[in-house]
Amino acid sequence: MAVAKTDSYAFCRRIARARARNFYYSFLLLSREQKDAMCAVYAFMRYCDDISEAEGASREAIERWRSDLNRALEGDYPDNPLWPAFHDTVERYRIPHPYFHEMIDGVSSDLEPRQVQTFDELYRYCYQVASVVGLTIIHIFGFDSPDALALAEKCGIAFQITNILRDVREDSENRRIYLPAEDIHRFHADLSKRDEKFLALMRFEAARAKAYYDESRPLIALVHKRSRRSLWALIEIYRRLLGKLERSNFDVLQNRIRLTTLEKLKILLQSMR
Questions:
Q1: What is the DSSP letter of 223?
Q2: Backbone angles phi, psi at 209, to 5 degrees
Q3: What pLDDT digit, counting tens, does each position of 10-34 carry?
Q4: Could you tell me which residues are beta bridge partners of residue 114?
């Protein structure tokens, strides 16, 4: 039985509330229509990640999800309650379909153990799993200048490098090394040992992320006025997470560094000023 569009949006809202630890706070600053759209896109992304990270994950499962995506984009909804809301969001905000295929390509690359070799390879991965998210959501925020597209791409790179620095231990345990081998070798770092070589590597990558945050900052002024507070809060949450990583002296091998709920709420309050 087909799921009603209103029920589909309610389903996506529940997923976002439960799982979108950073994104959801910025959603709260949007209109109801925009917030629902963000939740629908987030639900799609969450399913992409969950399929790729499930025990026994396979390329066949990913390709079944891609096939379901193609059907949903045509208005033929497979058996998942997220699709009516997702399709409505994509049509309403005219979001280019290739972005969603790029997301699937990105998560499918995580099915096997990997060691990223160069920054160019890392950039491509960050583009697929994060920049295309930025490119998607600025259609919901609204923008007029094509310059916003390049800035959204850079913003996604900054976000994903921040995530990678936070998750070094967890990713290593899963045999996924995203810090480029060329950089690890340059600093003679051991990702299991928090010594000065490791810290030098982490500081180098953090500086790289900060440069992308700085370069993407003009994006806030390019999205439609009603969306700027939300985008500012989203960027600020990730930027401050990076700052917290730095202040901890990259204590990521023993602890998971994150912003508290109170810290995120303070960012929302600041955005309203």
A1: B
A2: -65, -45
A3: 999 999 999 987 788 888 899 999 9
A4: 176
Question: For the chain, percent helix, then strand, then coil, each to nearest 5?
Answer: 70, 0, 25
Residue 114: C-alpha distances to residues 92, 142, 180 (Å): 38, 36, 11
Question: Residues with Cβ < 8 Å from 175, sequence gap 6 or more?
Answer: 113, 114
pLDDT by residue (tens digit) across 222-255? Answer: 999 999 999 999 999 999 999 999 999 999 999 9
Nearest to 239 by CA among 122, 169, 155: 155
Vertex 180 angle, CA 240 and 209, to 5°: 20
- How many angstroms separate the CA atoms of 33 and 41, rounded? 13
**Confidence (pTM):** 0.93
Provide the pLDDT for residue 22. Answer: 79
> What dihedral do alpha carbons 96, 18, 124, 169 form, nearest 10°?
180
**List of E strands, the chain:** 114-115, 176-177
Q: Which two tokens stand for residue 162?
A: 């921040």
Burial of 74-101, coded b for 16+ CB within 10 Å and e otherwise, reads eeebeebbbbbbbbbbbeebebeeebbb
Q: Which of 70-84, 154-168, 204-218 has the lowest mean pLDDT?
A: 70-84
Nearest 10 degrees: Cα torsion 90, 38, 134, 212: 170
Report the distance separating Cα 187 and Cα 185, nearest Å: 5
Confidence of residue 59 (pLDDT cuts 50, 70, 90): confident
Which one-letter amino acid corresponds to residue 228? R
